[in-house]
TrEMBL record:
Gene Ontology, cellular component aspect: heterochromatin; nucleus; site of DNA damage
InterPro entries: WD40/YVTN_repeat-like_dom_sf (IPR015943), WD40_repeat_dom_sf (IPR036322), WD40_rpt (IPR001680), WD_repeat_DNA-damage-binding (IPR050853)
Protein name: WD repeat-containing protein 76
Record keyword Repeat present: yes
Similarity comment: Belongs to the WD repeat DDB2/WDR76 family.
Length: 623
């Protein structure tokens, strides 16, 4: 079955004609379709133009389609090649369904093509061109949608025609999706959408709902419902954690003895006897070699470790007796613990008192009468423990000012110099009646931590504050603002303590929070104090440990003693040149001893830690 689908007319110059060839192709082996594809050929150097005229199958009857065969036969210049796809089916059964599926644009193009072909074929004297132009009809090709004019279409390349086809198909596809209409509907739905209702159902109110019962006492009404007169509320008194103790002397009653007063009376008698036999030590300083050898002989054992206070130890003092070993410790809770190491039983030789309500920062035995133990506390009191009378006498009291440190201004310990945290100083005379100061001195420092008097020239004293060390002359003090003789400003952080060397006072040691121990030359204390040595030492103890305070050894004034954070735990001894002399350590020392004191004549060292324990290093056979 072969029949021409369309005819085309080619206009060429001087004897060049176009030849139309109709060819049928198979798609999926069961669908026959035709495709129109203009082909340009050049014969004898001239261009052939193909004009396509659209037509519609609706305007032609089946007989006309069949009659197109006779038209092609009459015109001998045209060659029509027909191929059979399905011989058993007639041509009209194959072409008509397929041609109906062609879009309207293609139909109009085919209609125009058909009309031009018929017109050209009916002309008299129509001749065939020498060069043939083959036109293939393909329903599924890229030239289905022909929307350009004939002249424009002839100049497009296959790539451009393919591009125009893709643009047209994409436009049709997006138009078929109806995105604008869908977006408009969604916009309307969002506008009409109401907020979701809470799933929680509100309980319905009952008409006869019974109210909850309430206390008539809290409503302040009587059983009849009549309001009672309001009663004035009493102010709630908050109990002070550290209440001040009453002024005046306090009886010396140990807290840990109980009813065994006979033992304590024997202790008081022993205390008085050993204080009478103390003489002044005029021993010449030993060499560093012999001093180091004596330090090597000092050991610690379980018998020399004991808990004497409840809280952290903030001050330690050793009794200067040469016959008995007596250690006193002041705690942050205001307790004073006394420990007699000559007793075989630790508990029998320990006595705890509470003469203060706040931390005890300074604790000294009187240099003139060692039976007296003087203690200074943050609670604004300075007391003297007189073991001959078994009482704590009140020496100085000032509740408006917090005390920080004190020292003996005279050798007989009758005059005291007290430092306050606000930077003021108080001159106290123990020989006068009353508990007030003799003179209030305003220093040039904002805060005073320690006060220390020169051991030889006692008119000079030194104060350590925030970052400075000042030296004053007691003969030139003012109640308004006293100017220091010397100011030391080498420190970069707060200073914990500063002390003169115990024998000559020619050296000063300071402990600073910048992890340095500094040695100054104070031989000309009235003019200058140059820095001699700076020792690198870890002084960061943290919040729960008492700050380190480096002190001089009273037997060897060119050596200092200080606690250490190093492991294993130890107490370190340095020379004034900065060299390490010795480290006191042992298996029984498992904590940091922040506060340490050395015996003035014997090789005995006592250190206190933050749990209230005393650790004593001594040479065997000392007690």
């Amino acid at each position: 079955m072969s029949r021409p689908g369309e005819d085309c007319k080619g206009k060429v110059g001087s004897g060049v004609r176009a030849l139309a060839q109709v060819t049928e192709f198979k798609e999926n082996q069961d669908v026959t379709y035709a495709s129109l594809r203009p082909v340009q050929t050049t014969v004898l150097g001239k261009t052939a133009k193909v004009y396509l005229t659209p037509f519609s199958l609706n305007d032609y009857k089946l007989e006309q389609l069949k009659h197109s065969k006779s038209l092609s036969e009459k015109n001998s210049n045209y060659k029509v090649v027909c191929q059979k796809t399905e011989p058993k089916k007639p041509c009209e059964e194959l072409l008509i369904p397929k041609m109906k599926a062609i879009p309207s644009k293609v139909e109009s193009t085919l209609q125009k093509l058909s009309l031009d072909v018929h017109t050209e074929s009916n002309r008299p004297g129509h001749k065939s061109p020498s060069a043939a132009t083959v036109l293939s009809v393909d329903m599924e090709s890229s030239d289905e949608d022909i929307t350009l004019g004939v002249d424009d279409f002839s100049g497009l390349s296959p790539y451009e025609r393919k591009r125009l086809k893709n643009i047209s198909e994409n436009a049709k596809f997006f138009a078929s999706l109806q995105l604008s209409e869908t977006a408009a509907r969604l916009h309307e739905i969002i506008k009409k959408r109401q907020p979701p209702k809470s799933k929680r159902k509100t309980p319905k109110k009952r008409e006869n709902e019974i109210g909850c019962r309430r206390s008539m006492r809290l409503l302040n009404v009587n059983p009849s419902g009549v309001s009672l007169p309001s009663t004035p509320t009493q102010p709630v008194l908050i109990e002070d954690e550290n209440p001040l103790l009453p002024p005046g002397p306090l009886e010396m009653i140990p807290e840990n003895v109980g009813d065994n007063h006979e033992l304590f009376k024997g202790f008081l008698q022993t205390w008085g006897e050993m204080s009478k036999t103390i003489g002044k030590n005029m021993e010449v300083l030993s060499s560093i070699k012999s001093y180091k050898a004596n330090l090597n002989d000092m050991v610690i054992s379980e018998d020399t470790v004991h808990k004497v206070t409840k809280g952290s130890i903030s001050s330690v003092a050793l009794h200067p007796s040469e016959t008995r070993i007596m250690v006193a410790a002041g705690s942050k809770s205001g307790q004073i613990g006394l420990w007699d190491l000559t007793q075989q039983n630790k508990e029998d030789g320990t006595y705890i008192f509470s003469p203060h309500s706040q931390p005890i920062s300074c604790l000294y035995f009187s240099p003139a009468n060692p039976v007296h133990l003087l203690s200074l506390s943050y609670d604004g009191t300075l007391r003297c423990g007189d073991f001959s009378k078994a009482a704590f006498d009140e020496v100085y009291r000032n509740e408006s000012k917090s005390f920080s440190s004190f020292d003996f201004l005279t050798e007989d310990a009758a005059t005291l110099l007290v430092g306050h945290w606000d930077g003021t100083l108080s001159l106290v005379d123990r020989r006068t009646s009353g508990t007030s100061y003799e003179k209030l001195i305003c220093s040039s420092m904002g805060k005073i931590r320690t006060v220390h008097v020169h051991p030889v020239h006692r008119q000079y004293f030194m104060t350590a504050g925030l970052r400075d060390i000042h030296v004053y002359d007691t003969r030139h003090l003012s109640s308004r603002r006293s100017q220091p003789l010397v100011s030391v400003t080498e420190h970069t952080k707060s200073i914990a303590s500063a002390y003169f060397s115990p024998v000559t006072g020619n050296r000063v040691v300071s402990t600073c929070a910048d992890c340095k121990l500094r040695i100054f030359d104070s031989s000309c204390v009235s003019s200058q104090m140059p820095l001699l040595t700076s020792i690198r030492h870890n002084t960061i103890t943290g919040r729960w440990l008492t700050r380190f305070q480096a002190v001089w050894d009273p037997k060897q004034e060119d050596c200092i003693i200080v606690g250490s954070m190093a492991q294993p735990r130890r107490v370190e001894v340095f020379h004034e040149t900065g060299k390490g002399v010795h480290s006191l350590l042992g298996e029984c020392l498992g904590s940091v001893c922040s506060i340490n004191a050395m015996h003035p004549t014997h090789y005995i060292l006592a250190g206190g830690n933050s749990s209230g324990r005393l650790h004593v290093f001594m040479k065997p056979g000392s007690c």
